[in-house]
């Protein structure tokens, strides 16, 4: 599959006249709880030639594609990427720390990861994860629940808890987040993960009261501790320099 993904990315470069600097997997395959029919969520960062950035006119800064064989691609232009980095955008930070990388310019990725650490805003990332968890709470309290919904809610709830307790950006791999949950929750999650690995994404699972109560408790914990978190460092001048260096 990696060869097929790299071939598609090469096609994108040729069709759009861009250079891809980094490409990774996002979503359930990166997090470690994919179903057999899960898409490949390919995310990438690219740059144009200098003329694109000197134009007077606003131009698209996103490239998207969807193929018949479940390749779901979305890429951001370098300028958009750096602006989002300045805001400690959580999805972007996840891309940069994905455990599944398809292509990387080593110098670029190293620099982006260092900048991501400097730009990290605990409060901005916590509110991103808290909002995502809340979006899934209604479906997670139904009598039958898609396991995908449980895992999306659990991952973001634990990511928020990680930020509060460790004041750092949480791991992308769900297995690395799991140890901060109580042992009975860990055991139940591993049981559900084994089921999810053998069911398609439409599968409905009977409500797990233990999981639902843990999610509600963790949402309350994350909300109560949110206000005590710090914000990001201002790095406008440094990020400007990084951007200019990469488009020369």
UniProtKB/TrEMBL annotation:
<protein>
    <submittedName>
        <fullName>Nucleotidyltransferase</fullName>
    </submittedName>
</protein>
<dbReference type="InterPro" id="IPR043519">
    <property type="entry name" value="NT_sf"/>
</dbReference>
<dbReference type="Pfam" id="PF10127">
    <property type="entry name" value="RlaP"/>
</dbReference>
<dbReference type="InterPro" id="IPR018775">
    <property type="entry name" value="RlaP"/>
</dbReference>
């Amino acid at each position: 599959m990696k060869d097929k993904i790299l071939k598609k990315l090469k096609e994108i470069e040729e069709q759009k006249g861009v250079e891809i600097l980094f490409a990774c997997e996002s979503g359930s395959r990166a997090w470690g709880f994919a179903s057999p029919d899960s898409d490949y969520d390919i995310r990438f960062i690219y740059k144009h030639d200098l003329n694109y950035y000197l134009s007077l006119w606003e131009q698209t800064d996103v490239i998207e594609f969807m193929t018949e064989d479940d390749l779901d691609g979305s890429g951001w232009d370098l300028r958009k990427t750096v602006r989002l980095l300045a805001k400690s955008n959580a999805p972007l930070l996840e891309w940069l720390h994905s455990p599944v990388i398809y292509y990387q310019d080593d110098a670029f990725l190293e620099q982006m990861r260092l900048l991501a650490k400097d730009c990290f805003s605990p409060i901005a990332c916590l509110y991103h994860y808290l909002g995502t968890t809340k979006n899934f709470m209604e479906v997670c309290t139904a009598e039958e629940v898609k396991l995908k919904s449980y895992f999306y809610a659990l991952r973001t709830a634990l990511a928020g808890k990680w930020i509060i307790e460790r004041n750092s950006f949480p791991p992308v791999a769900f297995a690395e987040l799991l140890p901060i949950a109580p042992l009975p929750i860990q055991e139940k999650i591993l049981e559900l993960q084994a089921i999810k690995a053998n069911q398609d994404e439409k599968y409905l699972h009977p409500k797990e009261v233990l999981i639902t109560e843990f999610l509600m408790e963790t949402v309350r914990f994350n909300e109560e501790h949110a206000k005590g978190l710090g914000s990001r460092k201002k790095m406008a001048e440094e990020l400007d320099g990084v951007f200019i260096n990469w488009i020369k």
